[in-house]
Amino acid sequence: MALLAGQVVVVCGVGPGLGRSIALASARAGADVVLAARTAPRLDEVAKEVTALGHRAVAVPADVTDGESAARLAEAALAAFGRVDTLVHNAFAIPPLTGLADADLATIQGAFDTNVVAALRLTRLFTPALAASRGSVVMINSAVLRHSRPGFGGYKMTKTTPGAEYMHARQGCARSAQAHSAVVPGLTSPGAGEGTSGSCTSRSDSRRLAERRAIGSDGSGIAFK
């Protein structure tokens, strides 16, 4: 029997790379999938790929930083499948990569809203369903936790906090009957190929990918949510 047979996985932050790969890997492992992101056409494309693998998919356009939109996502998932077994937090925002002394506080606040507050909000919204299924919460973090390169301070602040959120959530697992996990992938490429994360193999690869895909040549931020 497939590892996730009969289960329902909610993937928040379905972009062209890791979010899509998580959704397809879940389907290959036997799960039905709820796909959430702001970009409806992309969700529809990934939903077709999940369906082609023989499993059901529901695309829910949602802005996870908006409380009402997040609540509609939880309602839509339960209305479609009646249960949720896994919630994957993959939505993220990277503020412009500048020194903290020069950083625009509004952009850092926006990243906190996506990377921290939205994850906590969604976990709370899905907790009753996850407790009922003895399900799990998976938080996708970032390799930025392992370095302190210039310009990444704001982003690192927003990704360090989910680590604390994860640790405190684990302490409450026995009470809520949920499992909590954190994943810290390397830099990934949206164009790396079907079903892969596209991890870089060298520092120069990482730098070129960051310039081309993650932050843009002008150092501006990016968000998949």
Notes on the structure:
The protein is an alpha/beta fold and 225 residues long. It contains 7 helices and 8 strands, in the order E-H-E-H-E-H-E-E-H-E-H-H-E-H-E. The strands form 2 sheets. It has a 6-stranded parallel β-sheet, sandwiched between helices. The chain is globular, with a radius of gyration of 17 Å. About 14% of the residues have low confidence.
Q: What is the topology?
A:
Blueprint: E1 8-12, H1 18-28, E2 32-37, H2 40-52, E3 57-61, H3 67-81, E4 86-89, E5 92-94, H4 105-133, E6 136-140, H5 153-171, H6 173-176, E7 179-183, H7 203-214, E8 222-224
Parallel strand pairs: 1-2, 1-4, 2-3, 4-6, 6-7
Antiparallel strand pairs: 5-8
List keywords for this structure.
alpha/beta; single chain; 225 residues; 7 helices; 46% helix; 6-stranded parallel beta sheet; Rossmann fold
